[in-house]
Design brief:
CATH topology of the largest domain: D-Maltodextrin-Binding Protein, domain 2
Shape: globular
Strand content: 15-25%
Number of helices: 15
CATH architecture of the largest domain: 3-Layer(aba) Sandwich
Order of helices and strands: EEHEHHEHEHEEEHEHHEHEHEEHHHHEH
Radius of gyration: 22 Å
Structural class: alpha/beta
Helix content: 25-40%
Largest sheet: 12 strands, mixed
C-alpha cells in the first residue's frame, strides 16, 4: 500500500482506463489518482457534455508516478543512432521533446507543487471563467497562488485546482488498547507513552515527523528557526525510542498483524481501510495536524481544451458533486458543504468530523527556503540513527 492508493469499495474509479466512445470527438483527457474520484461523478459529467465532446479518464497509483510522468513528458527524446534526427527536428520546428503530452489535467498533491513549478513541469491554470472559483475558501486560493519558484505568493499565478483534502492522523489498535485497559489516544503526545516503546511507526518524511513534534511543542509545521526550539532535539530522541520502523508505504499491515500498536499516516490511505478492519481506530490529534490537498494541475506544453477544462472544474466544485466526492472517497471537500452526521459511518466520525478548534490549529506543509528544508532533513536523519 502507498499513499492514497488503497483500494476501496465505495464506487470510486479503480479500473485501469475509462475511455470515451469516439475518436472524432473533442475530448478532455484527465489522469487521476486511483480511488480519488467516484465513477458516478465522471458519468454525471459525461451526461452534461455536448454530443461532439467527451472525457477520457486514465488512472495512476500514487503521486510519485504522477511526478515521474510530468518529468518524462518534459525530457527531450534523443533517439540512438539517429544521425539526422537533429536536422529533422529543425525542419519540423521540434525542440526535441518528442514525448507527446496528451493529458489536459492530472492529479497532484500540494506537497509536490513547489518542485513541479520550479522544474517547469506544469503551467498555470486560467480560472477567469471558473465561476465556482469565488466559492473556494481563501486558504485554498492562497495555497495554489505561487510565484515561478513555487513559493506561496499573493502576486503569483494560479497553479492548481483543489478537489479534496485529507490530513495526517494516528491510527491504532483499539482492541489491544481496550484489552490492556489503556486510555484511547487523543493527541501527538500519546506517541511518547511508555507502553508504546518500540511499538509505533512513523512516516518516512522529515517535514511530517519534525512537524508533529513541533505541534506537540505548540509550534508550527512551517517553523523556520529550528534552533530556537530548545526542546526539539531531546523530544526527537525520546520519540525515536518509540519507533519500530519508518515507512510511508507499508504501515497498515504491521498494525493488523500486531507488529505495531499505533502508526502515523495519511487519512486518504487509512480511512478507506477502516470498513474492513474494525479493530482499528483513528484520531485527528487535538493539537492540530498537517492538511494535504489533491489538486488538478496542467502539464507544461499542453494546449488544453480550455472550455472543457473550465467545465470540468466548475462541475466538480458544485456543492452536490463536491459532497459526493467527499462522502464516497472518505475525504473532505475544499468547497463548503454540509454533511449530516448520520451519513458518516460511526467508525469514521472521529476523523471526518473535525472540530473548528482542531482545524484552526492545523496547517498546510508549505515550502521553506532550501537551507531550512535541509535542517529538517538533517534532524530527521539523526533521529533515525537513534
Amino acid at each position: 500500500m502507498d499513499r492514497r492508493s488503497f483500494l476501496i469499495g465505495t464506487g470510486a474509479i479503480s479500473s485501469q482506463l475509462l475511455i470515451g466512445c469516439s475518436d472524432n470527438k473533442t475530448r478532455l483527457t484527465v489522469e487521476l489518482l486511483k480511488n480519488s474520484l467516484p465513477a458516478q461523478v465522471v458519468d454525471e459529467f459525461r451526461r452534461t457534455l455536448k454530443s461532439n465532446t467527451d472525457i477520457t479518464i486514465a488512472l495512476v497509483e500514487q503521486f510519485k508516478d504522477v511526478f515521474n510522468k510530468l518529468e518524462t513528458w518534459q525530457k527531450p527524446t534523443q533517439p540512438k543512432n539517429d544521425l539526422f534526427g537533429w536536422f529533422r527536428r529543425l525542419q519540423l520546428g521540434n525542440s526535441g521533446n518528442e514525448n507527446k503530452i496528451s493529458t489536459d489535467l492530472i492529479s497532484l498533491g500540494d506537497y509536490w507543487l513547489r518542485v513541479a513549478i520550479e522544474k517547469k513541469l506544469i503551467q498555470p491554470i486560467d480560472v477567469s471563467q471558473v465561476q465556482q472559483w469565488s466559492v473556494l475558501p481563501k486558504q485554498y486560493k492562497e495555497l495554489v497562488t505561487r510565484n515561478d519558484k513555487g513559493f506561496v505568493d499573493p502576486q503569483g499565478k494560479i497553479w492548481g485546482a483543489p478537489y479534496r483534502w485529507g490530513n495526517t492522523v494516528i491510527v491504532y489498535r483499539r482492541d489491544k488498547f481496550e484489552e490492556k485497559k489503556w486510555a484511547p489516544m487523543k493527541d501527538w503526545a500519546d506517541l511518547w507513552r511508555p507502553e508504546l516503546r518500540n511499538r509505533i511507526s512513523l512516516l518516512n518524511h522529515p517535514r511530517e515527523v519534525i512537524g508533529l513534534v513541533l505541534k506537540k511543542l505548540n509550534k508550527s509545521y512551517n517553523e523556520t528557526d529550528l534552533k530556537s526550539v530548545t526542546e526539539l532535539e531531546s523530544e526527537l530522541k525520546k520519540l525515536s525510542q518509540q519507533v519500530k520502523f519508518y515507512g510511508s508505504i507499508q504501515y497498515i499491515e504491521p498494525l493488523l498483524i500486531g507488529d505495531t500498536l499505533a502508526a502515523v499516516g495519511w487519512s486518504q490511505d487509512i480511512l478507506p481501510a477502516l470498513a474492513n478492519y474494525r479493530d482499528l481506530a483513528v484520531i485527528v490529534p487535538q493539537s492540530g495536524t498537517a492538511q494535504s490537498v489533491d489538486l488538478w494541475v496542467s502539464p507544461s506544453g499542453r494546449q488544453s481544451q480550455q472550455e472543457l477544462l473550465t467545465q470540468w472544474i466548475n462541475f466538480l466544485w458544485q456543492p452536490k458533486i463536491a459532497r459526493q466526492i467527499a462522502t464516497r472517497t472518505r475525504s473532505h471537500s475544499p468547497i463548503p458543504i454540509k454533511i449530516e452526521t448520520s451519513e458518516i459511518p460511526e467508525q469514521l466520525r472521529s476523523s471526518l468530523i473535525i472540530s473548528q478548534n482542531i482545524l484552526d490549529k492545523s496547517e498546510f506543509i508549505l515550502p521553506l527556503p532550501v537551507e531550512v528544508e535541509q535542517q529538517y532533513i538533517n534532524l530527521f536523519e539523526t533521529m533515525k540513527k537513534g
